[in-house]
């Protein structure tokens, strides 16, 4: 599982302060998009073997180099240079339970957030052996009520690179809709199976009714009874990058465990609205390759 155990220099490319609705309460939240640049050993922080999957050493393969025993073989060459070089890792999945530490550079001043979320993890590979890792740290805990701290975090995108630690939880836990840092997920009603699909008056589940409609607005994710307030919210939910394009297909993981493949059919940047059609839907874990 991706983590940065030692203080690591990253650049904050976007800081998005916002408010989330939790029940009837609006709470402060922030998204910190970061980029980490380095050699391709960074890929092993994401998953063991990923470095060798993408990179090789043409000279060593041709027996043109001799290495000492146990010496780490440099892998400067793209193994498949004609394939895409940008990849999303666990696209659309947000993992909670991370500990996010930002060192201000002084002994007493630092941020230490428990139960942060890591989202939109992706990486780009380059010939020569370098890699860029990108991701978004999301947090909505009580510490954000501190106006000075909230302002400091909101301005990070305009500052110099910072040093952070991002420590993974012992067990990965997907952040559910309505997640609140430091608090347990809302429990289902007694006797109710959280994985059970409820039926409407017409005998259709919300998922089936949504798929049967074959057309939806950005604000109507019927299977979760949730509305997106903007195109940015859709981008966050799907892990897509801006700007969206008409005809673009996105993966959308629903709270009930469905993977929807949706196609953008219309965009209106002035009104911040979009529409999509569902291409396919299937339970998560049964994706075709």
Please tell me about this protein's structure.
By secondary structure, this protein is mostly beta strands. It is 13% helix and 39% strand. The chain is built from six helices and 14 strands. A six-stranded antiparallel β-barrel has the order 1-2-8-7-6-9. A hairpin with a 4-residue loop joins strand 7 and strand 8. The longest helix has 8 residues. It starts with a strand and ends in a 6-residue tail after the last strand. The relative contact order is 0.14. About 12% of the residues have low confidence.
Gist?
The chain has 289 residues and is mainly β.
How are the SSEs ordered, and which strands pair?
Blueprint: E1 4-22, E2 25-39, H1 43-46, H2 50-54, E3 55-56, H3 58-61, E4 77-78, E5 86-88, E6 95-103, E7 110-125, E8 130-139, H4 147-154, E9 162-167, E10 173-174, H5 206-213, E11 216-217, H6 231-238, E12 249-253, E13 258-268, E14 273-283
Radius of gyration: 21 Å
Tell me the strand percentage band.
35-45%
Element order: H for helix, E for strand: EEHHEHEEEEEHEEHEHEEE
Strand arrangement, largest sheet? 1-2-8-7-6-9
Please identify the structural class as seen in this structure.
Answer: mainly beta
Q: What composes the largest sheet?
A: 6 strands, antiparallel, barrel
Measured between the Cα atoms of the first and last residue, the distance is 22 Å
**Shape summary:** globular
Please tally the β strands and state the result: 14
The number of distinct helices, counting runs of at least 4 residues, comes to 6
What number is the mean pLDDT?
Answer: 79
**Share of helical residues:** 10-25%
Model regions low in confidence, pLDDT < 50 over at least 5 residues: 192-226
């Amino acid at each position: 599982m991706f983590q940065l155990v030692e203080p690591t220099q990253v650049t904050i490319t976007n800081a998005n302060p916002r408010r989330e609705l939790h029940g009837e309460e609006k709470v402060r939240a922030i998204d910190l998009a970061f980029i980490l640049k380095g050699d391709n050993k960074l890929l092993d922080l994401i998953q063991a073997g990923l470095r060798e999957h993408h990179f090789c050493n043409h000279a060593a393969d041709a027996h043109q180099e001799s290495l000492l025993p146990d010496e780490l073989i440099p892998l400067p060459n793209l193994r498949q240079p004609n394939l895409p070089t940008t990849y999303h890792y666990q696209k659309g999945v947000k993992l909670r339970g991370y500990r996010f530490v930002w060192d201000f550079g002084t002994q007493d001043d630092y941020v230490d957030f428990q139960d942060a979320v890591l989202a939109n993890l992706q990486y780009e590979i380059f010939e020569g052996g370098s890699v860029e890792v990108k991701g978004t740290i999301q947090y909505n805990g009580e510490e954000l009520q501190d106006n000075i701290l909230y302002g400091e975090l909101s301005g990070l995108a305009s500052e110099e690179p910072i040093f952070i630690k991002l420590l993974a939880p012992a067990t990965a836990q997907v952040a559910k809709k309505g997640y609140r840092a430091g608090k347990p997920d809302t429990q289902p009603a007694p006797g109710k199976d959280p994985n059970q699909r409820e039926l409407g008056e017409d005998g259709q589940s919300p998922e089936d009714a949504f798929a049967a409609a074959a057309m939806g607005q950005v604000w109507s994710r019927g299977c979760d009874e949730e509305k997106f307030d903007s195109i940015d919210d859709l981008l966050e939910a799907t892990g897509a990058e801006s700007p969206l394009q008409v005809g673009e297909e996105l993966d959308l993981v629903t709270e009930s465990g469905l993977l929807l493949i949706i196609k953008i059919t219309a965009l209106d940047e002035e009104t911040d609205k979009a529409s999509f059609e569902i291409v396919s839907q299937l339970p998560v874990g049964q994706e075709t390759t």
